[in-house]
Specification:
This protein is α/β, with parallel strands linked by helices and 119 residues long. It contains six helices and five strands, in the order E-H-E-H-H-E-H-H-E-H-E.
Length: 119
Amino acid sequence: MNQKFVIFVHAKEDEGAKAAHALLYAKELDEAGIEVKIVFDGAGVKSLAALSTNTDRPSHQLYLQLKDKGIIAGVCEFCSTAMGVQEQVLATGIVAMNEINGHPSIAKFVQEGYTPIVM
């Protein structure tokens, strides 16, 4: 069975455990041979900014591993701008997604066979 998951991270910057668990789940799925992608959306764009800059946190290394493997698919362009983290997010090199009025398209992932998980 060819299962694929996309994790939409909406966890705010003060919900670091939730964002970290999204990364842990993605790592576990990947290591089990299950295709997985992560999209930072809504308040989750602030979590991405924190993950990318808080280099002393264990979740930073996990973020880098997943980014290097191409598991982090993108970040919401609209939300990055609206929440004032566009500069930090652009510095990550992660793709800014804007298919639906500046936001990422969940339908595109579903059409490609991904089951969404929203955290």
